[in-house]
Known about the structure:
By secondary structure, this protein is mainly alpha-helical. The chain is 83% helix and 0% strand. Helix 2 packs antiparallel against helix 3 (63-87) and helix 4 (90-121) packs antiparallel against helix 5.
Amino acid sequence: MTPAPIAAEAGWGEARMRDRRRRRVRRAxxxxxxxxxxxxxxxxxxxxxxxxxxxxxxxxxxATEVVATTITFAIVVLGAGxxxxxxxxxxxxxxxxxxxxxxxxxxxIGHPLAEQMERAMDSGSLADALWWVSLAAGLxxxxxxxxxx
Length: 149
């Protein structure tokens, strides 16, 4: 067996990075298509069926259709998360864990506090605002880690 010529081995790192970039683009395209289909296909098919069955002016969406669409979308999101996790290196995983931990801690601690404040102030739902606050806190941690390098 003869060793491969030096010229064949040159540029192997660039080729590997190009292949990785192509895989990411294909994965992103597949996820976008799957998410779009999961959110649009079932309601579209239900609308077509309603048109053929002579009931085109439905007042509300059946609960089974909403549940099926939600479950399908959740499966797509979970699959995309697992797929992305497997492609990530240890630094990307650490950054993601820090972000999700921050979101979880802010939500976990903030939810009882928001409930108590709602009762005390007799105001509307602070849980919606808390969701946005926890998301902002997670993104701030993620941005801080990226800025620090």
